[in-house]
């Protein structure tokens, strides 16, 4: 009868149905892979623009936006000399800021000032190397006023995001670098890796 499938074609169609979930899974996997590749690529491109904006900030002594529509500005460059890495940090720790670079957490002092300066970043971009830092390692923070503060790592610990125990007004000049934990996890979780450091000295350096 016209318009009706034969038994053979019907059986073929039914046989193809079990393959549909596999196709959906494969498509979903490709989407996740694309997203996983896009996030680091976007962060790397943003860092190039942030470096230029930070250089303008140091030269002019005034904040410079990395792109015209940015709602934040670069405030520091964080360097891990032992790892050969450095990243420009933005003001604020909103999700939008962290998509492009480390963020200086609101309510904490600038690096080198009395208290605890806190910077946060994603574990799959700029702060993916926090797990490689060990006590005694050096961390340098170049501020937007041109001062470079050198810190020495004193330790690291794991804490829930809402139970870190961090005190922005703690005595001394301290630094905390924070990212999600575990470092190799794909899904968000409540734990954070906190790398703690204490200031050694400060100096003025060339851009």
From TrEMBL:
InterPro entries: Sortase, Sortase_D_1, Sortase_dom-sf, Sortase_proteobact_type
Gene Ontology MF annotations: hydrolase activity
Keywords for the protein's UniProt record, in alphabetical order: Hydrolase
Organism: Methylobacterium dankookense
Domain of life of the native organism: Bacteria
Pfam families hit by this protein: Sortase (PF04203)
Gene3D superfamilies tied to this protein: Sortase
Family annotation (CDD domains): Sortase_D_1 (cd05828)
Name used for this protein in its record: Sortase D
Record's keyword annotation contains Hydrolase: yes
